[in-house]
TrEMBL record:
One of its GO terms (cellular component) is cytosol. The keyword Glycosyltransferase does not apply. GO terms for biological process: carbohydrate metabolic process. Pfam families: Glyco_hydro_65C, Glyco_hydro_65m. This is Protein-glucosylgalactosylhydroxylysine glucosidase. GO terms for molecular function: protein-glucosylgalactosylhydroxylysine glucosidase activity. InterPro entries: 6-hairpin_glycosidase_sf, 6hp_glycosidase-like_sf, Glyco_hydro_65_C, Glyco_hydro_65_M.
């Protein structure tokens, strides 16, 4: 297997992985499929009630495969190009080359396309015939489909999902148009080269499906269909560019993570299109029994969101709007469990009602509600987007979460503290525990944020929010100077995944460096080595914080056992089990680079930085970090940090910024002017001038 002759963003192989789950995905904000698969998924289109809710399988004409019958020893290659967002399969034989390309159009999000190009080589004029193998049948186990009249040469089917998520609820409609696919294609003896294009448009309305198909046909006729996708995708990649000088495997992993995660985001120019959240395996996966049925977990809010926020705050806002749209379902979840406010579901689909197939998680893994609110807090601190909170439903969500936490706590007369009892912490090896350190700490953070935001919005602050935040118990062992995972936790007891270590980051729960170290020392050997992929990233961030660079690198290296070849598809567990295209693990990995190597920490007063690199990494360049309406290019080496505001928004106007070093030295950050200073700790803040 060769990797694009050293290009870290191009993954090429001469054979496909044996496990089809490890094939790469092509996805945009609305459509997704795995290459060579006969189904695709559309965002927000679920079928099945409650715990059986899963992504509805839409039949896909895109899963075709080229074959060259009778060809003498053809050579084949398969390439995922993360720079162009395109998968290709090439067959080369004496006298000709055939290339099949597949992509999900990044700006026309209801359109996916493939093309087959056959070209004569070496002056050959023999006719060339390529077979197209397809398993496509226009029917689905999840949709009641009917045929409609052809449109501009495309076949047409439409229908509804079979079972609504909640009784009496909506059943999403799917309309699909596609170019008929012949069994073979022939390049005539007089032709040097020919390209055949096949479009598939999928939307929630006939009008949108036809509009998207017609737009695709027009671009194809002009010869610019693929170019228009590449242009839109490249603009996204440039706007979210992260580059580092370091080992090839690390750079390949970085570009793979960026490709799969950015594929899930809405394009920058589609604010009116509702976004449906990001599931652990992405939109391409999530059929019944696979990849958590396509449900949305804390994986989105805790593991993926912080990266998206720094690189693409518009997409971060769309994620928060998904949670706002499902707030009514979260209120019903709380009421049904006897609590006030809103309890977000452990597993969410279209309505915000709990769709977890196993009741214990939905009932007990309540930290999800605080995880959702932490994403809102990070967004507020980074953007100061008051409109989201004052006009678009954000404040109602914040208030509902605060009310939930207050109603979920009970007062302990013995300890004179508030308790949260009967929960499952992030460590799912334990359930029905009292005072999970992580759950209680995230509840405290929720209440503190709600109180602070109320003040900013000039709203009254309920006294109980601050009182309960002050008096909630977060277990701490005074003798050993570490945080027990919950009341009664015994040191060394096995832990499934990152739990208490999350108190240091991302929660930034107040603690000394000694306690931070003790938490890492206590839980690193106790954590299941076969646990989910994102875990080791958080240990790496912790050790980077403490400048233990070798220990940080050894934790980060563990992630590589979850990255499969040749297309850098992540698996949830290192033995290959669990979700595939595991965006959660990729999100954790990216946080090591975006928050660990940089030392970035999002606070109310500023964006802290304290860079540190493990051995072998010499430079990190972030081309477009967003903060308070500014886009900053930040380049970090071991000796120097260079910053420049490359763009400042006008509507609303960006806040002028300055960089402040721990020594007190200040550097105004003006648009178009680069400043540099030694690689030391500091922060970026609103300039007082």
């Amino acid at each position: 297997m060769a990797d694009g002759e050293g290009d870290p963003g191009v993954f090429t192989a001469t054979a496909l992985p044996e496990d089809p789950r490890l094939l790469p995905t092509v996805t945009n904000a609305f459509l997704g499929t795995r290459v060579f698969r006969d189904i695709l998924h559309a965002a927000g289109v679920y079928s099945g009630a409650a715990g059986d809710t899963h992504r509805a399988d839409v039949p896909s004409p895109l899963g075709l495969r080229m074959a060259a019958p009778g060809a003498r020893s053809p050579t084949q290659s398969f390439t995922l190009n993360t720079w162009t967002g395109t998968f290709s399969h090439t067959i080369q034989s004496p006298g000709y080359m055939a290339t099949h390309q597949l992509f999900a159009h990044h700006s026309l999000v209801h359109l996916m396309a493939s093309s087959v190009t056959i070209r004569h080589l070496d002056g050959s004029t023999h006719p060339v015939t390529v077979q197209l193998q397809s398993l496509f049948v226009p029917q689905s186990q999840d949709l009641h489909l009917s045929s409609g009249p052809d449109f501009q040469g495309a076949h047409y089917i439409y229908g509804q999902t079979l079972v609504p998520e909640v009784e009496g609820g909506p059943r999403p409609t799917v309309h699909m148009l596609w170019t008929p696919i012949p069994q073979s294609l022939t390049l005539g003896e007089e032709e040097r080269e020919r390209c055949w294009q096949f479009l598939t448009a999928v939307a929630g309305s006939e009008e949108e499906a036809k509009r998207s198909y017609s737009a695709g046909l027009s671009l194809a006729a002009a010869g610019s269909l693929h170019h228009s996708h590449v242009r839109a995708w490249a603009a996204l990649r440039r706007g979210c560019s992260v580059e580092l000088d370091g080992p090839l495997a690390l750079r390949q992993a970085l570009h793979g993570c960026l490709y799969y995660l950015l594929s899930a985001l809405p394009p920058r120019d589609s604010p009116g299109v509702p976004f449906h959240g990001i599931s652990p395996g992405g939109l391409s996966n999530g059929t019944r029994g696979e990849d958590y049925w396509g449900h949305v977990f804390w994986d989105q809010d805790t593991w993926m969101f912080p990266n998206i926020l720094l690189l693409h705050p518009g997409a971060a806002r769309a994620i928060l709007q998904y949670r706002i749209r499902t707030l009514e379902g979260a209120r019903r979840n709380a009421r049904e469990q006897g609590y006030e406010g809103a309890k977000f579901p452990w597993e969410s689909a279209a309505t915000g009602r709990e769709v977890c197939p196993e009741e214990i998680y939905g009932a007990q893994e309540i930290h999800i509600t605080g995880d959702v609110l932490m994403a809102f807090e990070q967004y507020y601190c980074t953007t100061q987007d008051l409109k989201l909170f004052q006009e678009d439903g954000g404040w109602e969500l914040v208030e509902a979460v605060a009310r939930y936490w207050c109603s979920r706590m009970v007062w302990s007369e013995e300890e004179q503290l508030y308790h949260i009892r009967g929960v499952m912490p992030p460590d799912e090896y334990h359930s029905q525990v009292d005072n999970s350190a992580y759950t209680n700490a995230v509840a405290r953070r929720s209440l503190n944020f709600a109180a602070g935001l109320a003040r900013d919005l000039l709203l009254p602050v309920p006294e109980e929010w601050e009182e309960r935040a002050r008096k909630i118990k977060v277990p701490f062992d005074e003798e050993r100077k570490y945080h027990p995972e919950y009341d009664g936790y015994s040191p060394g007891e096995p832990v499934k995944q990152a739990d208490v270590v999350l108190l240091g980051f991302p929660l930034m729960h107040p603690m000394s460096a000694e306690v931070r170290r003790n938490d890492l020392e206590m839980y690193e050997p106790a954590t299941d080595p076969a646990g989910p992929a994102m875990t080791w990233s958080m240990f790496a961030v912790g050790w980077l914080e403490l400048k233990e660079l070798q220990r940080a690198w050894s934790q980060l290296e563990k992630c590589f056992s979850n990255i499969t070849e040749p297309f850098k598809v992540w698996v949830e567990n290192s033995d290959g089990s669990g979700a595939v295209n595991f965006l959660t693990g990729m999100g954790g990995f990216l946080q090591v680079i975006l928050f660990g190597f940089t030392g970035f920490r999002i606070t109310r007063s500023g964006l802290l930085f304290d860079p540190t690199f493990p051995e072998g990494i010499t430079k990190l360049k972030l081309s477009s970090i967003s903060y308070l309406g500014n886009r900053l290019e930040i380049t970090i080496t071991r000796e120097e940090i260079r910053m420049e505001v490359t763009e400042a928004s006008w509507d609303p106007p960006a806040c002028p910024l300055e960089a402040v070093l721990e020594s007190g030295q200040r550097f105004p950050l003006w648009e178009g002017q680069s400043v540099s200073f030694p690689t030391v700790p500091g922060w970026i803040q609103r300039s007082p001038s």
